[in-house]
Design brief:
heterodimer, A: 123 residues, alpha/beta, 21% strand, globular, B: alpha+beta, 6-stranded antiparallel β-sheet, 5-stranded antiparallel β-sheet
């Protein structure tokens, strides 16, 4: 199962990549901005794209919309430090499959990725 | 011009004749006259009846002829004569009466007759009322008629006895005439008194009419016009031609008089002409100031003769117009032919001037009342208008314009104090003049030291100055405004001085009235309220904008802080979670890497928490500084050494001159400043490069800088980088909270220093800060001060 990680904070991105590799996922790309997210989604064709919300220039929601324009049907998980109802709603409209808060811990993220992959395989 | 007159208005001119008095007298004695006539006729008829047998026919015919003549004359007397020729009719009928009675008495027995007494009474009556002529007129016809009767009746009465009787009666009549003369004299005096009374009544009537005419006016202009023309008319009636009547008013300065109205020969003076009161002779001036009417002889004309080119020998009478206490002006009649007035005429002038004074005071009070009402309305309108204006400059201009028109001055200025309250703010204020355009602005007045402004603000009262006696600053200000006399009114808001309102007159002789001062204070009060309102509104709006911005920044901070605090936490929790779950699967190197990240992120968290605490301390004013003398190059080297542990991609250098002096500062805070700036420089030059800490000395300051050749900052962000929570948009994230430069700037300011930066996008940034050079003895005081 292929995943890609986009987060502008280097150590967080490194941590996520290490963890996902150790969990047995194939990490097909990693990036630090919205623009990179579009390129990674188009080229690496990950099953699931983990996208940070707070990034300079282009935030996660805009990036999600643009990714889904470039790659329709791309499954996206919005991974954010600050999560509220308004953001959940906006994320759903932008085509984000799941929103995961950074404080919810890595288990939630791992579980969400696994569930999404399963759905894709079934679909 | 005759000096003796028949009074204010001659009787002839009033349509009365001297015979008026004769008529009165006739009417008074009419009853007596009628009685006399009836007695005479009745007497004749009785005498004839009693002696009808004794008298010859001729005698009876004669007597009846006399009686008929008496009757005819009486009829004439009471019908036509009395109305047409009263005097003639009266005397004529009187003579006929006497002749008839004389004849009758003679015919009926002379002294033995009961008519002797009646005859004596008639003569006495004539003596009393007509004098000796009356006696003569009574006795002479009697003697003639007696002589005729005596001849006609054949010596019925002896001529001798009748002559003796006549002599006795004449003497009696003469004595009566003497008594009559005394009474006549009394009557003459009475007549003259009556004429005098009538004249005075006429004068009172004329004065009454004048006062009614003058008093009917409600405007000063019209009042003065009427007063002069009416007085002139009366003066012409009193003294004839070649007169000039005028009213002059004393200026508020009480130094000059202005001719306001003039009638008659206008070759010498015109309305609007002014003359100083010093042109009057001292004695004349004294009488004027005492409010007494006076005569001005040709040699007392003083400088006025030359000033107005008055004819030689001209005289004048003048009556001051006073309000009871003070002289307002004077009513004057000049005689070019040099007439001298009587005391009565002076009194008449005085009476007229008193009427003018009271009418003038009444009219002025009315005009004042009207003006006050108009001012109140205008002030009310102004207040309402000012309420709707939100722009301070517009408010100031509106007030200056209103001040100009309401106070009727030549210039009006409204200047506000600068922030220090020490002088005029060159950027705020308004000027207005009635002339064609201003060549100065408030900024031209701002540098002037106007002592009177300070005085007006300190004493909280209007100060009047003129360009001769004012301070140098005020003289220059007046010159710039093109005025000679100024009234400076303080503008105070709750006793706090805001600025000044200034009225100006071009002419030095124009003076400010109490009313203008009161009006000025009212406008200044309005100005204070309006200025405060606009400032409060502005402050409120600024505060609102500031609060909105703060709110936005806080929201942003919550988002940033949660992101920034959670990012290290995410890493720490993620790596520790991975280590726990997959520890055995990892190589030693991987484990070390993971633990290093955990360690770094824990430090980053600690640093963020420190920064938040520092900001909190700064905002609560709890920042305690401990001053000491610091060797800055050495401290900079330490900071560089410490920073080297955090980067291996940057060249870190110091650049200080060898004689760089030590600086008095808090060592810990200075370290924080330098570390923060170095970290910033490293953070924003991610591709490596040179970071330099330098220093130099300038005018009583030590200037330090940290320079990088990194990404630089866009011009639009330059002003805001020292703001709290401000982060340059779109910059690659480098673990900042938006607090670093804010903390640095606050720490510099706490050292009484200043901070600024130079940057160009893509070319790098240099942040400078300057700390004041202090002596060692300052250290103790500074520390104590900061501790407080």
């Amino acid at each position: 199962m292929k995943v890609a990680v986009v987060d502008d904070t280097e150590h967080v991105r490194e941590m996520l990549v290490s963890m996902l590799v150790l969990d047995g996922f194939e990490v097909v790309g990693q990036g630090a901005s919205g623009e990179e997210a579009i390129a990674i989604a188009s080229e690496g064709r990950p099953d699931v794209l983990v996208l940070d919300y707070s990034m300079p220039k282009m935030d996660g929601l805009t990036a999600a919309r643009k990714v889904r324009e470039a790659v329709p049907g791309q499954s996206i998980i919005l991974y954010t430090a600050y999560l509220d109802e308004a953001l959940r709603e906006a994320a759903a409209q932008a085509g984000v499959a799941v929103c995961v808060g950074k404080v919810d811990g890595l288990e939630t993220l791992e579980r969400s990725i696994a569930e999404l992959c399963l759905q894709i395989q079934k679909g | 011009m005759p000096t003796d007159t028949k009074g204010l208005i001659g009787l002839k001119e009033r349509g009365r004749t001297p015979s008026h008095f004769t008529m009165q007298r006739i009417q008074r004695y009419l009853g007596t006259a009628i009685t006399m006539r009836f007695i005479a006729i009745a007497g004749i008829l009785v005498a004839v009846f009693m002696r009808v047998g004794e008298m010859p026919q001729a005698q009876i015919r004669f007597i009846l002829w006399i009686a008929g003549f008496e009757l005819v004359s009486n009829l004439f007397y009471f019908s036509v004569g009395f109305r047409r020729w009263p005097r003639f009719a009266f005397h004529f009928s009187g003579l006929v009466d006497i002749a008839a009675i004389g004849a009758l008495v003679s015919l009926t027995g002379g002294s033995n007759s009961e008519f002797v007494t009646l005859y004596a009474l008639v003569i006495v009556f004539n003596g009393v009322f007509y004098g000796w002529l009356g006696v003569l007129s009574a006795t002479l016809p009697s003697m003639i008629s007696l002589a005729i009767a005596s001849v006609a009746s054949d010596q019925i009465v002896s001529l001798q006895s009748v002559a003796v009787e006549m002599g006795v009666f004449a003497a009696l009549g003469f004595l009566a005439s003497q008594v009559g003369e005394g009474e006549k004299k009394d009557r003459r005096e009475l007549k003259e008194g009556a004429a005098q009374t009538a004249r005075q009544a006429d004068e009172i009537h004329a004065l009454y009419e004048t006062s009614i005419t003058i008093g009917s006016h409600v405007e000063a202009e019209a009042l003065l016009s009427t007063a002069v023309s009416r007085t002139h008319e009366l003066a012409l009636e009193m003294w004839g031609a070649d007169l000039v009547t005028s009213i002059t008013l004393l200026d508020p300065s009480r130094e000059e008089m202005t001719v306001v109205r003039i009638e008659g020969d206008e070759d010498h003076a015109q309305p609007g002409d002014r003359f100083p009161i010093s042109a009057l002779k001292p004695a004349i001036l004294e009488r004027l100031m005492k409010g007494q009417p006076y005569f001005v002889a040709p040699d007392e004309m003083g400088d006025l003769r030359e000033m107005f080119n008055l004819p030689e020998g001209a005289t004048a009478i003048s009556a001051p117009i006073t309000d009871g206490n003070e002289v307002l002006g004077a009513l004057a009649v000049r005689s070019n032919s040099g007439a001298v007035p009587t005391a009565d005429q002076l009194e008449i002038m005085h009476a007229i001037s008193n009427h003018i004074a009271s009418a003038l005071l009444r009219v002025r009070a009315l005009e004042n009342e009207r003006k006050r009402r108009a001012e109140a309305t205008a002030l009310f309108e102004l207040a309402r208008e000012l309420n709707a204006i939100n722009d301070l400059n517009q408010v100031l201009h509106r007030i200056a314009q209103s001040g100009l028109s309401l106070a009727q001055v030549n210039a009006c200025a409204l200047a506000l104090l600068n922030v220090e309250g020490a002088g005029i703010d060159p950027a705020l204020g308004a000027l207005a003049t009635d002339g064609d355009g201003l060549r100065v602005t408030i900024a031209d007045l701002a540098p002037l030291a106007i002592d009177e402004m300070v005085q007006a603000l300190q004493e909280r009262r209007p100060i009047e100055i003129d360009h001769l006696t004012g301070s140098e600053g005020s003289r220059r200000a007046a010159e710039l405004l093109g005025v000679s006399r100024c009234l400076i009114i303080p503008v105070l808001a709750h006793e706090t001085p805001l600025g000044i309102l200034c009225f100006g007159y071009r002419s030095l002789s124009s003076r400010f009235s109490i009313e203008q001062m009161q009006l000025g204070e009212a406008i200044a009060g309005l100005a204070a309220v309006a200025i405060e309102n606009v400032r409060l509104l502005q402050m409120h709006q600024d505060k609102l904008t500031e609060l909105k911005e703060l709110d936005r920044l806080k929201t942003e901070f919550v988002s940033t802080a949660s992101h920034e605090l959670r990012s290290p936490l995410t890493s720490i929790s993620g790596f520790s979670h991975t280590l726990l779950r997959h520890g055995e699967e990892l190589t030693q190197e991987e484990r070390t890497d993971f633990l290093t990240v955990i360690n770094q992120q824990a430090k980053q968290l600690a640093r963020l928490v420190d920064e938040l605490l520092t900001v909190s301390r700064i905002e609560e004013g709890r920042l305690a500084l401990s001053f000491q003398r610091i060797d800055v190059p050495a401290l900079a080297a330490e900071c560089i050494a410490a920073a080297r542990a955090r980067t291996d991609r940057h060249e870190l250098v110091t650049d200080f001159p060898p004689d760089f002096p030590s600086v008095v500062a808090d060592e810990g805070k200075l370290t924080d400043i330098l570390t923060n700036l170095i970290d910033n420089a490293i953070k924003y030059s991610p591709n490596g490069g040179r970071v330099e800490i330098g220093g130099k000395t300038a005018d009583r300051e030590a200037i330090l800088w940290v320079k990088d050749d990194g990404a630089g900052i866009a011009a639009k962000d330059l002003d805001r980088v020292f703001e709290k929570f401000y982060q340059v948009e779109g910059r690659p994230k480098a673990g900042g909270s938006g607090l670093g430069l804010f903390i640095v700037s606050q720490l510099v300011h706490a050292h009484d220093g200043r901070i600024w930066l130079e940057s160009e996008e893509g070319q790098g940034t240099t942040i400078f800060f300057a700390l004041p050079q202090r002596r060692a003895t300052d250290i103790l005081g500074l520390s104590a001060q900061r501790a407080r």
